[in-house]
Design goal:
alpha/beta; 4-stranded mixed β-sheet
Amino acid sequence: MYSIKFGNQTIEYNLKRSNRRKTMSISVDQHGVSVISPSATEIEKIEAILYKKAVWIKKQLSDFKDMNLNNMQHYFLSGEKLPYLGRYYRLKVVRTNTSQPLFRFYQGRFLAEIPYEAVEEKQRDIIYPLYVEWIKNRAHEFTKNRLKRFILKLQQEPNKIIIKEQKQRWGSCTASGNILLNWRIFLAPTSIVDYVLAHELVHLKHMDHSKEYWNTLQMLLPDYEKRKEWLKINGKRLNV
């Protein structure tokens, strides 16, 4: 295990050298920081590059720490953090004389208004459906905007976007040209949502996973394999 000092923080990393590598790669996951470098690269050069990337590395480590802390079932109590597009926002619960619970995003945090008589043990039952509905509503407009550049490149456009509960898949594409998306994918970072959107959009052109399919996906997202691997590793954490 190696380490560098950045400010008052020590960043530890695993280093692997390879004769096949021509450039250095840095990756961050729930296990920490991993570096793969060409065999001849001096440790001073490796650490200089890491130092330049230190702010990004710290952000990634912080995000994974949040994921670990939030990987348990939420009770939707004030102070808990809820995910949306790879970031975590605090929830504030306010009891009012309202008869209809409300949920919104306000001043950088989630705000839920529930009746005075609602007991704490039932807060999840009350707020969770509102949170899911909020995600779905925002996801429709977000998806339309993110798809624009892919549609322009591929010259293929979905008939309809449907965001719903899906137990087994992050997304799917129907023969009628509809793209179905699991609402939980919108808990992931934007880059991962883009991967799922591109993955399904390419199915409008290639309904299988042939070589032509993967080549087309790579044209849209040259680093799709990295995003695919992130989802494979972290997909189970996209839950509340």
